[in-house]
Design a protein that fits this description.
Blueprint: E1 4-6, E2 10-14, E3 23-28, E4 32-33, E5 37-38, E6 44-51, E7 54-61, E8 65-67, H1 77-83, H2 98-104, H3 119-129, E9 148-149, E10 158-162, E11 170-178, E12 182-190, E13 193-200, E14 204-209
Antiparallel strand pairs: 1-4, 1-8, 2-3, 5-6, 6-7, 9-14, 10-11, 10-14, 11-12, 12-13
Length: 214
Amino acid sequence: MAKFRVTASSLNVRTGPSINDLIITALPRNTIVEPIDVSLDERWYQIEVQQGGNTIRGWIAKGYLTAEETDPIGAPQWFTIAEGEIGVNEVAGPGNNPRIVEYHQSTTLRATEDSVPWCSSFVNFCMEKAGIQGTGSASARSWRNFGRNLDAPRLGCIVVLRRGPNPNNGHVGFFAGESASHLRLLGGNQSDQVKFSNFPKSMLLAYRWPTNEP
């Protein structure tokens, strides 16, 4: 994850991701933190800080932080492209976001509505912009056959997930991190937008990487 700077005059570090959890310590303004995990509601970061020679692990509210670094070191080009799309979201009502329609044009389906599932379209778009041929398919599970398999994830690798009991359904995004139980993906059509989201590891189908990329 990126590093962040504390903007509050004093930011409480708590035992859990809630204002009801106990305060362990507080961080002064301009403290630099590097999160190690994120809460399921994505409102809190877990951090480790050194104080008095001791390592303190706790949770801080994201609303009192500003990004110190925008791109992870060593991120592949397609991941950086994906980061640049963060915040693109579906249009409520009858309209369509032209940027999402543009994502769709990287697949053979070439959908013209942003309500059509677009996670695979987004991954195809990012790979295409990076000069790498994707699957060209609007199906998330098409990425199970893309490139080469990875036994363990690496930053920016393509993560294919199952979605429900139907073997034809799935989700695809880019690996951004993990906790003991969840994978953190940067992807499209995550709560109808491009964003970071957490998914249970029980949904995992495959980690994939472009064949000709080191």
